[in-house]
Write a structure and sequence with these properties.
Oligomer: single chain
Order of helices and strands: EHEHEHEHEHH
CATH superfamily: HUPs
CATH class: Alpha Beta
Number of helices: 6
Strand order of the largest sheet: 3-2-1-4-5
Radius of gyration: 16 Å
Number of domains: 1
Number of strands: 5
CATH architecture: 3-Layer(aba) Sandwich
Length: 167
């Protein structure tokens, strides 16, 4: 039986922290499904299609059976649809754990056949958050230590295109 894992997120934009979790998760499962979704409480810089393309481009060279799928449903419904037995969640800090622990408990109530596995981001990558990357970029700060090189270009182009640059 193949072990399928789902790694959900908005990936707006994908960061080196995401890439670290993806590479490590791909070694733990036979297939890793990266679920790209839209969070209604966040205002994305990139459209769903742009984020999908970005994640596909950045993960293309990674080892393992990795696919990228859009979803707009309950995570547990998406996991069931993909045949997943594992949800992969990345943790950066203790504050993440509190939210993720509560979410894992709720998800277990919805579908007890799917386990949540937490992976700690590499220590050097723990402070990285897409929200902060965008904020730094909008104020003209360097983001090359936080995202892949092509994503630096994507973010800069979007900021220029929308006239978002501050400072």
């Amino acid at each position: 039986m193949r072990r399928i894992g789902v790694y959900p997120g908005t990936f707006d934009p994908i960061t080196l922290g995401h890439m670290d979790i993806i590479a490590r998760a791909a070694r733990l499962v036979d297939r890793l499904v990266i679920g790209v979704t839209t969070n209604a409480s966040k205002s994305p810089m990139f459209s769903l299609d742009e984020r999908m393309a970005m994640v596909m481009r950045e993960t293309a060279g990674l080892e393992g059976d990795i696919i990228v799928v859009a979803f707009n449903s309950l995570l547990m419904d998406f996991a069931e649809r993909e045949g997943a037995s594992v949800i992969v969640r990345g943790l950066r800090a203790v504050s993440d754990f509190e939210y993720e622990y509560q979410m894992a408990g709720m998800n277990q109530q919805i579908n007890e056949r799917v386990e949540t596995v937490f992976l700690m981001a590499d220590v050097a990558l723990q402070p990285i958050a897409s929200r902060l990357v965008k904020e730094i970029a909008i104020y003209g700060g360097p983001i090359g230590k936080f995202v892949p090189p092509r994503v630096v270009e994507d973010v800069a182009a979007r900021i220029d295109e929308r006239g978002m640059r501050q400072g």
